[in-house]
Amino acid sequence: xYDLVPVFSYLFLKGRCRNCANHISSRYIFVELLTxxxxxxxxxALGISALFLKIVIFTPFLIVITFIDYDHQLILDKMLxxxxxxxxxxxxxxxxxxxxxxxxxxxxxxGLLLLIAILTRGGMGGGDIKFCAAIGLWLGLKLTLLTIFxxxxxxxxxxxxxxxxxxxxxxxFIPFGPxxxxxxxxxxxxxxxIIDWYLxxxxxx
Length: 205
Known about the structure:
The structure is a single chain. By secondary structure, this protein is mainly α. It has helices spanning 8-12, 26-46, 50-72, 77-94, 99-119, 126-164, 177-202. The longest helix has 39 residues, at 126-164. The chain is globular.
């Protein structure tokens, strides 16, 4: 139990297992620090509120899915089932997103990526499609579509940068799940402001 306290246990144990003395990957403390920093940022952005409760459940799923996809190019179905189920439950309990909006968003988000996968002949993975469908159950239609838009913008920019820096080669696979997660987190916190800004600047509304 004492060895499972985030960050502090790693520092106290000096990065080694208490029993076998094997090195513990620094990935653990990085993920723990990242999660804590994001929680703190969300607290300052939202305060103690129902939205804060929602995002502290939402964010750890995004982090876990991001790192698994980054390491293994795989988004696990069992993770997505829990993720989708949690979104439905919290929206029903706290009345954030209507059932109809959740259904439309899930079908639209997953369907859009499925269409892209068909048109690009496999340029999008099945895990990405299901991930966007699950995000639809959390965010509703508008923020889900914004999530996908942001994911492509961020993904395109990062991929281009990796190619320029020669960290990745042209035909080398770059997982899309992390970009979906970043887009979803951004849309959750700032989606309404981004949409309002877009309508005001480009459509004069």
